[in-house]
Amino acid sequence: MLRRTQWLAGLMFLFFFLARVGLTQIRDRDPLNEKEIDQMRESADFPDQRLELMINFARARMASIDQLRADAKNAKDRPMQIHDLLQDFSSLLDEIDDNVDMYASHKTDMRKGLKLLIEADSEWALKLRGLKEQSPPEELEQYSFVLANARDAVNDSADGARKELQEQNELAKEKKLNKIYTERPD
Considering the entire predicted model, what is its pTM? Predict the structure, then answer.
């Protein structure tokens, strides 16, 4: 009986260890490659440029999903690849929203970038709806959760961008916006 208890305890430890490692790997996945990270660093002081870059990165993930759907060769791996791209897309949207919040808190002008974001959010909402409607049920089942998260992220991003654009326009009328992030008074 003691051996059986030790064996079960060891098995449970192994299970929890593997689960912890798996969750860490999922959480540590970076949606950006090294080149994109470098571009982000270079644009840190210029919110419009940075938002445009991030929008383009998110568009690239959506374009990759479209390519996967059009390519019949990878039908077996396609659902997992779409899952990962949707997860990267959602992570990028979260990063965009974090950047909008950061620049807004320092009253840095990003009106041009916000307009681009609002347009992109509309585009993405249509693409995600099309993905949901046109995906075969057996594939959709494998990425429906991340697809729903991506759709929610797009809706939240659009709402936040519209609200922030309105606030930025009011601050611009009062001439209280900084053009460059490093020129902020704080």
Answer: 0.81
